[in-house]
Structures are given as C-alpha cells and as structure tokens.
Amino acid sequence: MRVDKFSLCATVVLIGALILAGPAAAIKIRAVFSVTGPASFLGDPEKKTAEMLVEQINAAGGINGEKIELIVYDTEGDATKTNLAVRKLITRDKVCAIIGPTRSGSSLAVVPLIEKYKIPQLSCAANYKIVHNEKTGKPYKWIFKTPQSDGLAVEAIYAHMQKRGISKIALLSVTSGFGAGGRQELLRLASQYGLTIVADEKYGPKDTDMTAQLTKIKGTAAQAIVNWSIGPVQVTVLRNWRDLGMRGVPFYQSHGFGSRKNIELAAGAAEGVFCPLGAMNVAEKLPAGHPQKQVTMQYLKDYKAKYNEPLSSFGGHAWDAIHMLVQAIQTAGCNKEKIRDNLEQITGFVGQHGVFNMSENDHNGLTKDAFQMVVVANGDWALAD
Amino acid sequence: MRFRWSWLQTGIGPWPIENALMETTTFTSQLLQYLITGLTIGSIYSMVAIGFNIIYNVTEIINFAQGEFVMLGGLVMVTLHTVAGLNLLIAFPLAVGLVTLIGVLLDRLAIRPIRNPSVLTLIIATIAASILIKGAAMLIWGKNPHDLPAFSGRDPISFFGAVIQPQYLWVFGFLVLIVVILTLFFDKTIAGKAMSACADNPHAASLVGINVNRMILLSFILSAAIGATAGIIITPISLMEFDRGAMLAVKGFAAAILGGLGSFPGAVAGGLILGLIESLGAGLISSGYKDAFALLILLALLFFRPSGLLGNAQVSRIKRF
Amino acid sequence: MLRIRQTPITVFALLIGVFPLIAGRIAVIENYPDVMIFVGIYCLITIGLSLLMGYAGQISLGHAAFYGLGAYVSSILTTRYGINAWLGMGAAMTVTALVAFAVGAPSLKLKGHYLAMATLAFGIIVYIIFNEETAWTGGPDGMGGIPGLSLFGFEFDSVNRYYYLVWSIMLAVFCFTVNIIQSPAGRALRALHTSEAACGAMGVDVARLKVIVFVYSAVLASLAGSLYAHYMNFVNPSSFDINFAIKLLIMIALGGMHDIRGAVIGTFLISFLSLEWLHVFEDYESIVYGAILLVVTVFLPNGIAGLPTMAGRWLKHKSRG
Amino acid sequence: MQAPVDPILHVKQIMMTFGGLTALMDVGFNVPRGIIKAVIGPNGAGKTTLFNVITGYHRPTEGSVHFEGRQIQHLKTHRIARLGMSRTFQTVELFGNMTVLENVMVGRHHHLPGSLLSCGLKLPHVRRAEQHAREHAMAILEFIRLADKAFEPAHSLGLGEQKVLEIGRALATDPKMVCLDEPAGGLNETESGQLSELICAVKDRGITVLLVEHDMKVVMNISDEILVLNYGQKIAEGTPRQIQHHPKVVEAYLGGDADVA
Q: Are residues A48 and A125 in the same domain?
C-alpha cells in the first residue's frame, strides 16, 4: 500500500506544529483578585501588575524555558465567589500555585480550602490572621502573604509617635475588614508604646462625612489621630479634619493611603499627614544606596509606560508575590511541596514593600523596617524623620 | 532630603502638644457641630427622598436607580468642570441636563416597554437599570473616586465654636431652592397640577384627559434633575465614585418612608431627621452603630405610625404594590 | 389554577441526582457541582421567599439577615461551645424563628413599600451587628474554623457529598412547600394575595397566616445559612448584606413571582450568571448582568415561569390570524 | 320555619366617626332569626359603613354589636366569620386567579386542618378533610348553579355569576347569617331576578340574610324587614309595605337627588 506523500507531510507538519505551539505544558498560575466590585481599586492595579510581569517574564523566555500561564479570576471581593474560584482552580485548572486574593475577608475565607488541598498561596491581603493560625500560634503551612501585616504599620506609627512624645491618641477606622483589622492591632499594641486611646470612632465605607466623629475627638485630649481606612473615605476624613481646624492634632493615615492620587484628591488637606509606606511609594525619594531603590524605580517606570496611570501600593503586593513565586518555581518546577518549601526559605528577597525573610515561623517575612514613615509635603511624599 | 515638620516651617506650629488643645471645645460647640453636620447630610438625603417621591407619586414605583442619578450628577460634573474645564455656571446646568437625559432613557427603555406591569416588576426593572448604569459608570470614570472643587472655596467659616464648610451652605441653599421651585411648580403650573392629580388618583387623572405617560416621563425628568443636583453639590464634600449610588438610595428611601411616602414636606423632614440621628448618634453614643440607630428609630416609628410621619394612610391605601 | 405535577419533580430530582456524575467527566463544567451547592443553598431561601412574596404577597428585604443568623448562630455554637453541628443548626433555626416572629408580628401590619423598608432596616441592623459585635462574630474579618458536617461518622467533606446533602434537603423542602401550596393553607395564602378583606370574611386569620409564612421562610433561610457556613467553614458579614437581599429579590422576580418553580429557575439562572458565566465579560460584567435583567423584565414581566403561558397566548393569537 | 324570639343580631346605638366626619349616629336595630332584612338609603347614607362595623372591618366609636347574644364589635373579622357571620362585598372581591371551586373551598378554610407541618407532610387527615371540603364545595356550587364552571378561573365569569359565586363562597363557611353588600348592583333584570330567587333559597336553608341594596324591586320583593338610613341616622324601620309609605323615606328619596325608588 502506497502512502500518500501529501498526507504524510501534512501529518508531520501538524504534529510538529502541535509540539511547537503547545508549549511544553506551561506553568499554571492563577490569581484571584477583586478586579470589580467594592474593592476594585485594590484589585485592579494588582491584576495589571501581575499581567505585566508575566508578560515580561515570558518575553524573557519564561522560567527555565517554560512559559507561565496566568489567568486572573475576579472575586468581586466576595467570600463565596472567592471560595468557588479557588476550588475551581485547584480541582479543574490543577494549578501550581495561587496568588491573591486581594481582600482580607476573601483571603480568610479560603484558608480552610488552601490547607485542605495543599496548594502554595501568596495572598495579597494584609490581615495577619491569614498567615497566623490562632490555634497553633504558627503560620498556616501553605499560606504566605506579601503585604505587611497591619501590626507592622501600627508599630511604625506608634514608634514615630513615641519619638514625638505623644501619649494620648484617638482612633478612627472604617467598618470594613481593612479598618477592623487595623483597629484591632491599634488597640492591641497601644500599651506597649505607652499610648492611651481616648477615642475609638468608626464610620461606614460609603459615608459622606465624618465631621461628627472628628468633633467628638476634638472634645477629647487626643494629641494625635490615627485613621485606618481605604478608598474615598480616607480622603473625606482628612478634609473634615482640616475644615474643623484640627491641623494642630497630627494625623496619621494607614499604609492604605499609599497612592499619590489620594494626596491629589485631598485637595491640600493632606499636607503634614503622616503615613507608613513601603519603599515603592517613595521610590524617587529613596537615597541612591537604598536596597530597594533599583527594583522600585524599575517597577515605577514599567508600570507608567504600560498603563500610564499612577502607581498604587497595592500593585506592589502583586509584584512581590509574582517575583517570589517565580523564584520558588525556578528550582521546584510545578512541585507544590517544593514550591512551598522554597517560599519558606526565601531570604533577602528585595521586593517593592521591603526585604523579605521568610521562615517557618514567619510567612510574611517583613519587619516594621519595611515601612518608611512618610509625610505629605507640598503635594508629594517626603521621608519623615 | 529629609522633611521636617511642615507646620514648623509655615508657622502654624502645634508644638508643644498642649497648643493643639488651646482652642477649647465646649460641649455646646460640639453639639452645634453635630447639628450642622447632621443637617448637611440630611439635606442630601432629603433631596434623594424628594426624587423618590416624585416618581412614586405618579407611578407607585420606588425607583432604585435614584442613587445612580446622584452618582451620575457628580461624575458628569467632574468630566465637564474639571476635565473639560467648563465654567461652573455652564457645567452645572449641562450636567443636570445630561443626567436628565438618562432619566428619560430610563423611562423609555426600562419602564414604558413593560406591558401590564406589577409594581414589583417595575422595581426590578429599576434595579436592573441601576446595575447597568453603575457598570457603565465604572467603565467611563474608572474605579477610583473623583473630586470637584468646592463652589466657593474651602475656607471654613467659624460659627459659635463650630465650623461650617462653605459647601454646606450651598447644600442648604439648594435644598431650599428645590423645595421652593417644586412648590411653585405643583401650585402654579398646569403640568404641576396635572402631576398632583396623577398622584392623587392616576385613574381619574387619565379620565379627565391627563396624559399619564407624559406625566411619568416628566416625573423621571424632575427626579433625575434633583438627583443630579444632589450629586453635584455633595461631590466637593465627599468625593464621588461609581458605586456610591446604592448607599445614598437606601438612605433616601429610608428618609422618604420616615417622612411618609409621597409627602414632600415629609421627605424634607425625614431626610433632615435621619441626618441628625446619624450625626448625633455618632457623636454622642457610638459611631459604629450610628446607621443602626437611625434605622431602629425608623422601625419604631413605623410600628406606631405605619404611614410615616406625614404620610397619608388613606392615600397609601389606594396605591398598588 | 396551580397544579404542580409529580412527574416533572421526579425527573428534576433524577437529573439533579446524576448531574455530578456527568459533570465530573466534562472538563468545562467540572466545577459545576460546586456552584450547584450554592444554587441549592440559595434555593432554600428563595423557595421560602417565593411562598412569602409570590403567594402571600408580602415583600421582604430582610431575608439576607435570617440567612446570616442561621450561619452565625450555628457557627458560634459549634466553634465556641463545641456543640454538635446538627444541634447548632436546630438551635439556629429556633433562634431565627423567634427573631422572625418578633420582627414579623409588628412589621407585617405594614403595607407595600413600608414593609419593604421595615424589613430592609431590620436587615441592615443585623448586618451592622455582625460587623460590630467582634467578640462574637469576629467582625468584618469573619470567623473561621467552622466544622464541616458529618452523620454517623460519614463526613460530608467533598464537593459531591455536600452536593447530595444540600440537594436532598432542598428537594425535601421543595416537596414540603409544594404540599403546603396545594393544601388549605396554600389556598388561603393565594387568596390572601388577591384580597385580604375577603380572606378575613372567610374566617382566615390573615395576620396569623402572614406571620406563620414569614417565620417559615425565615427558618428556611436560617437552614440555608447554616448549610453555607458548614460548607465554607468560614463566614463573614458581607455575604449577608443588602446586595444579597436584593439578589434574592431578583432571583424570585426573574423566575416568576407567582410560581414556586419560578423561584428555583430564577435562582439557577442568577446564581450561575453571577457565580460563573458572567466572569468572561470582566469589567463589562455588571453591564451585561444589568442588561440581561432588564431584557428579561421588559419582555417577560411574569418571569421565566410565565413563559409557557405567554407562548400559549401568542400561539393562540397566531392561529386566529 | 319558625323564627325564634331572640334576635340573631342586635345592634345597639352605634356611633362611627372618621376624623371629624360622623358616618353613623346612634344606629340601633335587631335582625330576627331566619328573615331577610334589607338596609336601604341614598348614597352616602352609611350603609356600607354599617356593614363594615357589623362584620368587624371597622371598630365603632361608640355602641355595641351583639351576635347570638355575644358582643362582637371588638372582634377581628375572621373571629366574627368563625362565629357564623359571613359577608360579600360591594366591589366583587373574588380570588380572581383561582378557580370557582377553589374560591368556594377557601370558605371552608377554618373547617380544615391548617398547620403547616401537617399540610406540608400531606398527612392522611389533611387529605381526608380536603376531600370532604371538595365535596362540600361542589354541593354548594350545585346549589348556586355554577357546578359546570367549577374549574374555570373566577375572573372569567360574568359579573352576575361573580356576585352569585361570592354568595356561594360566603355559604361555604357554614354561616348562621350572611351580609350581602349590594348583591344586585350592576346586574340586569334577568340576573337580579335569579339573584332574588337565590337569596330566598338561602333564607329557606335557615340562614338569616342582611342585605344592602339599591335595587328597590329586589328589596321590596324579598325582604321581610327594611331599615332605612339617611345621613348616618336611622329614619325608618318596618315591613316593605310600611316603608313604601313612610313620609320620611319618601322625603329622603325624593328630596335629595339620589336614586329614586
């Protein structure tokens, strides 16, 4: 029987094309960010950053020649949707590792899942409970997170206050996961820094005015105010503070304030406000010798070039997560156990939000040195002393 | 370069700390501040509640997209005034006009096409529209909040120890203006009287030759215009972003119910009372529970006066649901 | 005349039974059983709500709160006091029934939009309590470590196992509720919707019947909440907010208010749209969602369950020329 | 049928005011057992208000209502219904989307087990009771001659049939007395003739009838006693013959421009 030459050639070409086109089973990474919904202003820069980085890495040949396949699932900041998405990417997509979620609530919601299915995860949410099993007092085995824990930001703020001789403070927080997480740490750590909390006020994430809360604080002996919130309310509260003539009471924002857009929106009311920020927010202001100078400047440049919008500190969490994961995969391939072990052994990793030193007892790897105390001056950040 | 305390350089100097407290805050001035803040927020709620009432009176619908009008008002104004650089006096009416157009579209595309509707179907249509508008706004204006410059600067005015932002005065002013214009409209114009007739008894109104469809359209126009106005004047105080509408709609709805659905004095009173409860509750009792206080009082009131403060039980009985 | 036949229910039950076996073999829908667990849980709420809203004609925007109560009470009892999960669920249902009675008895005297506001207010207050009572609920961060369910040593720990658990409960509740609808009580309920006055004259205790149905639907929501909590092993307040209450309303309206089967169809559709299908639209998701809702409301004012009737009418119209 | 001496309904000095408006003033009368009593009067005379007071839809400002020797003015509607007093409505209040049979079966409601648990589980006694109720309702439909339309939706009936069905539904509650609010309103000659027959047939079953009616022909033909209201006050009471010639009644009807008898 004669073999048709044409069909033979066609088959060979086809098989060849399949081998070439179907990249040797790309490394599957999935990210779960709240790209839409109430926390979209956090998830959006994270998604953009992750996509940009994967593009860069793949353009440079991927990891050991293997391309990364990244798909971002939108959680809308919702616990149920996050649960579904994570379960889907574990059971259906069979991923090597997970990046995200964006919000503390969603991240805490999938802790049981991650631990059960044993998938390395790098969360981009802040709450320390994500990497701290309250029952054992140790980190969850499979979960890591890149954002600095609220406690570190609180310590940075409190240390600064202590230096300034402040002893009575007022707290303001938004009634969301972010605000509640920060408030808890603020209350917990106050006594260690010799601080008395004289007011503990809250407001809703969509409130239009916080004058009432500030007026109440005005009537106390508070020497400084700490505010813990994200989104438009953290700007509104600043304006109310300014309008009430309370500039004499120093105002500390959380690290959630880390976007220049917020200074702009505050329309001058942010002048003199303190804020603990990761190095990436003040990249240009860092001294040349600063360890993070180079990576932060590079990210800033790339992001601006690609998306032409101001950098947000939340994108930096995704940056840290992707890069650490890539580093872990380099020697582990898609071996989940090994990826996890590698992640735990990361030391001296220079990221956007600090220098990470992971360990068995610390799945965040940052200290309060990850924060620079920054003050708003002339409409821009400046390093505070 | 390291930065040193900005106020030391500018001479506002708070140090030593005790200076910060030099300005004594008495309880009365605090109370006054709560009242001022409450009335300002309340005025916005009132405006949203008035918007609810106008549409409710003619159609018996609670328009859940009412909050989106407010959001759109603010964001359209941002585009016209700060992005396109139009003068305030031109941008304001233009923004209101554009949002009104959305109101017309809402009526034409979502309300009118529904045949033999039940009131609940209509409500779902407005919910659907609000989801759609919110989604579109996210694409157009992005996910971040936007700001407008205050109409007459941001230098606060001192008032017996309390502080008033100039924008607060604009908020009060516009509430008064809206109330005056609406009163004149309903009392003096044919269209206004026809609308009141529709509100009292739509069936009878159509019998005497009033074009009920046109009145519904007019109600959407008016309500969108008022919503947009509220959005424009609140944005300099609290910024505006695509998903702010829902919260304002809920508060406005609560205000409308508190005052009695369909009653304009009720809407104004309901809004102001709601604002005051929130502000006083936050200031004097607990800020975490301030929204809960307002709603608890609303519930208690409803149990004793099932038609709200100034609502008419007889009228609400004719209305379908 | 409403007669729900047995055969379609049996077929439906069989389909539900074999679905995981089929879905497990098709990669694209491999995760659908997982989604279906939530569909089943939501169905429990909408079945009760449909009875309350579609049959008894009483609107409620407070059922997200009952759902939340079910979730939190059984979570707190199991995690803090180590109580057996099934007992916890029973306790949660009892607590919810008591709360529903306390809220329902005075609220259900209210009419139409006033009732909507009262239940909405209750829902928001409960939501605020979930957020604020951190010592009990863990606050906005939520609470984890909630144990899964097991029966005589059999753990419902995989998707498929929980799927069968949820859907067995759901089908039992569905049949139970269908029986109620076709019983004297159900007949009285449907009568109530048309004319409360006439119902009273027939010796039907209208107020009592309303409260009973309100409590029944609340208990179902509570059961759903407990099932949710023990599946997720985690709860946080935002799963029980107003948005969820409105989503329930949409599910029922979209499926068809006056038909309990409609509630199930609507729940399927909205759950799959929002949990699975619409994600491909990314930022356009909310626009597409709103548009779908709007189109369905405009063209199918009686919901999807009303489709056969509409089609029948259309065919009749056609054949007549 | 022998009428017992004690009246089935005793209305004592009813006063009813809405806001500042007095709708009923010192209205008092008796309805002896087993008769047909009509309440007539010009529009706005307070007839429907009187009905609403008797059947528990309004609570009188003053005065009392006694049904079978029991005070009922403070009771809720459904309690009064269960004591054996049922009613129809001036504007037809049928359950339009339900079938004719189901409408009548609603009238059997308080004779049926109603607990959600037993209904939901479809316990045998529920089924038996339901079967019984169905038979009972069919018998009533036979009586009101609507049996052939038992499975049609109520809203598809003509007005005359709807009015009849309302009476049938009221009968299903096993009442001792029915209150009919303008049963002949809007009906043509033939229909009101049939209706008169039906009302008499109801009386023959031993059920007392109280009716408000504008159609004087119907009233004069079937009533045993008539009560006349004007401006919320009782102006006359007596047999049809007495009423026809009562000077106050003639004045009330001819003096105002209300419909003339």
A: yes
